[in-house]
């Protein structure tokens, strides 16, 4: 009897060892793939945390390793530093120049400029590890060079102040995508909150001026980002855009019915138009709850693959922004004002994807679920590079066609339609 038990225990031990060995093999394979192709992440909110924590002062910012540095080490908002980016084999990061909705019609353009300036200074301060990139080729060059390609994405269409001139200048400063809305309608586009029960759409998608914003972005070579917009805005933008569009940090609506996620019919149109959804790791949009796991994230990636195809999915984790976004504004503000001393609620990154060092584990999980190496390469970065290049080709074609910068006046009804989705309040300065 004792011998039988002994054999059973030994058998279990061997199975576990064998599984662990396989898992180790898959992780090694994932790391090998990421040495070969650049891992590109569509969204990281570190710049806003630098604004909150350091008032944009980089003097004492030790980006190499923040794990022991106050206040980052104790903050549930902090998941990013250079050491962990290297460990996670991240080759290219779109840094978010996020502009809060409370600044709309007030100082949103100034905030966008300050956040772009911050990203540029952050990159220039670390020339050995980072390089400012504004083209698809630049991502590939930086990857060969072993430096983190750092790109700028502006989050919130209100950052352009309903002005094509401001849009053009943001492009000149390096912005390579604009998220058409954040959590508020702009005068020309509805945000995702408009899709929620009981909400009345402001425009019902994109206004004519909104469509011109999209066209001007096409002409410039700036990617149209549809994370945070309402479903009618998604559909209008995909119809209006001559180039493929992106979702820089969104997941699948079929698995979690948050208005921040992309429904299947929009995924099908996205596939037809050649775009990409870069999957967010935010628990509220992954499990529709406070907690989620790496396996839940893998399920979203698999769903988007199933509906849109393997050419239309990427990664846009949203690290450093996985926090209190969905909490009531008042409560959120109270935490904004005390990032160092407050007991933060339990909104956490998914188990297994705690910070930017963990991406290879996700690719190892997908290998275990039967993904081929070829498909992993697409997901990691080749899909985004394809979309980015297509956007650049459309720009070149429109230039060849002799298209001039758009000068259309803003229709009057567009500028008077000042509708606030959520922040129907005066701007509250959220710096500590
Ligand atoms: Zn966002």
Can you describe this structure?
Helices cover 44% and strands 11% of the residues. With 432 residues, it is of the alpha/beta class. The chain has a single domain (39-409), classed as TIM Barrel. The longest helix is centred in the first third of the chain and has 35 residues, at 2-36. The protein is globular, with a radius of gyration of 22 Å. Bound molecules: zinc ion. Residues 155, 227-228, 249 line the site of zinc ion (ZN).
CATH architecture assignment name: Alpha-Beta Barrel
What portion of residues belong to β-strands?
Answer: 5-15%
Secondary structure class reads: alpha/beta
Number of domains: 1
Mean pLDDT: 89
Cα gyration radius (Å): 22 Å
CATH class wording: Alpha Beta
Catalytic activity: an L-aminoacyl-L-amino acid + H2O = 2 an L-alpha-amino acid
Membrane topology: Lipid-anchor; GPI-anchor
GO cellular component, one term: side of membrane
Protein name: Dipeptidase
Q: Any key phrases for this structure?
A:
432 residues, alpha/beta, TIM Barrel, six-stranded parallel β-sheet, 44% helix, globular, disordered C terminus, binds zinc ion, Metal_Hydrolase, signal
């Amino acid at each position: 009897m004792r011998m039988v038990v002994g054999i059973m225990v030994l058998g279990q031990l061997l199975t576990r060892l064998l599984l662990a060995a396989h898992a180790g093999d898959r992780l090694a394979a994932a790391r090998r793939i990421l040495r070969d192709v650049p891992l590109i992440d569509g969204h990281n909110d570190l710049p806003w945390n630098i604004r909150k924590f350091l008032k944009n002062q980089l003097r004492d910012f030790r980006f190499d390793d923040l794990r022991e540095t106050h206040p980052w080490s104790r903050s549930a908002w902090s998941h990013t530093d250079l050491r962990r980016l290297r460990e996670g084999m991240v080759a290219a990061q779109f840094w978010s120049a996020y502009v809060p909705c409370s600044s709309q019609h007030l100082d949103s353009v100034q905030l966008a400029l300050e956040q772009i300036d911050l990203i540029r200074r952050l990159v220039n301060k670390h020339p050995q590890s980072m390089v400012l990139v504004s083209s698809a080729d630049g991502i590939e060059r930086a990857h060969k060079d072993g430096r983190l390609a750092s790109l700028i994405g502006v989050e919130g269409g209100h950052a352009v102040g309903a002005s094509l001139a401001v849009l053009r200048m943001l492009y000149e400063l390096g912005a390579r995508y604009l998220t058409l809305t954040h959590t508020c309608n702009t005068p020309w586009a509805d945000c995702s909150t408009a899709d929620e029960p009981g909400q009345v759409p402001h425009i019902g998608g994109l206004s004519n001026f909104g469509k011109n914003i999209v066209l001007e972005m096409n002409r410039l070579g700036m990617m149209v980002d549809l994370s945070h917009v309402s479903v009618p805005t998604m559909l209008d933008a995909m119809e209006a855009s001559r180039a493929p569009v992106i979702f820089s940090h969104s997941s699948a609506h079929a698995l979690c019915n948050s208005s921040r996620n992309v429904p299947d019919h929009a995924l099908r149109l996205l596939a037809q138009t050649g775009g990409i959804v870069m999957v967010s790791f935010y628990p509220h949009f992954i499990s529709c709850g406070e907690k989620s796991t790496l396996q839940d994230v893998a399920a979203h990636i698999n769903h988007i693959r199933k509906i849109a195809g393997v050419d239309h999915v990427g990664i846009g984790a949203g690290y450093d922004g996985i926090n209190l976004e969905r909490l009531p504004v008042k409560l959120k503000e109270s935490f904004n004002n005390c990032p160092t001393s407050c007991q933060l609620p339990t909104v956490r990154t998914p188990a297994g994807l705690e910070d930017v060092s963990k991406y290879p584990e996700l690719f190892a999980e997908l290998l275990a679920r039967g993904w081929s190496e070829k498909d992993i390469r697409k997901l990691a970065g080749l899909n985004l590079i394809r979309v980015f290049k297509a956007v650049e080709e459309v720009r070149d074609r429109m230039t060849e066609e002799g298209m001039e910068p758009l000068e259309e006046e803003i229709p009057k009804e567009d500028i008077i339609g000042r509708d606030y989705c959520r922040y129907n309040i005066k701007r509250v300065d959220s710096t500590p």
